[in-house]
Design a protein that fits this description.
Layout (H helix, E strand, L loop, with lengths): L2 E9 L1 H8 L4 E9 L10 E4 L13 H6 L3 H15 L3 H15 L6 E2 L6 E2 L3 E2 L2 E2 L4 H7 L2
Antiparallel strand pairs: 1-2, 2-3, 4-5, 6-7
Helix pairs in contact: 3-4
Bound molecules: zinc ion.
Zinc ion binds next to helix 5.
Length: 140
């Protein structure tokens, strides 16, 4: 597999915007495999989804195909595409998606000492800053 992203930009124009209130420019990102072909859409694998579901049921094509690694793969593909892309609309779309993918769900925090992900507890107005392991180690 030699995966890349293929950006498909449709420009609907002002009329579309007035009629539908949707952005006149729509960008769809497709995953393609250059080992299959260098021609689109022969090399089409699946659409890169905007939203990733954490539940195993009701997953999109991309997730059911690439399983647990799908979020990482999406980030890799987007970063690779960003380096080559010249179209400002597509660059904006890629950056937006990277931001979405890299943002962690709110309840997960990073330990201030070991940088590990953990679920912080709240103590009134303050919030746990270090994971339980580091917390236990710091105790006398
Ligand atoms: Zn820690």
């Amino acid at each position: 597999m030699n995966l890349r992203l293929y950006a498909n930009k449709s420009n609907f124009g002002e009329r579309h915007y007035i009629e539908t209130r949707n952005k006149p420019i729509q960008i769809r990102l497709a995953v393609i495999d250059l080992d299959i072909s260098d021609k689109y859409p022969t090399n089409f694998v699946c659409v890169l989804p905007r939203n990733f579901n954490s539940k195993t049921t009701n997953q999109n094509h991309f997730q059911s195909r690439f399983k647990e690694g799908s979020r990482e793969l999406a980030i890799q593909l987007l970063e690779k595409a960003l380096k080559k892309e010249k179209d400002p609309d597509i660059i904006m779309e890629i950056k937006e998606r990277l931001k979405l993918l890299k943002s962690k769900p709110k309840e997960i925090g990073k330990c201030a000492l070991c940088n590990k992900d953990f679920y912080p507890r709240r103590f009134g107005y303050s919030i746990q800053r270090t994971c339980n392991d580091c917390w236990n180690k710091s105790k006398p």
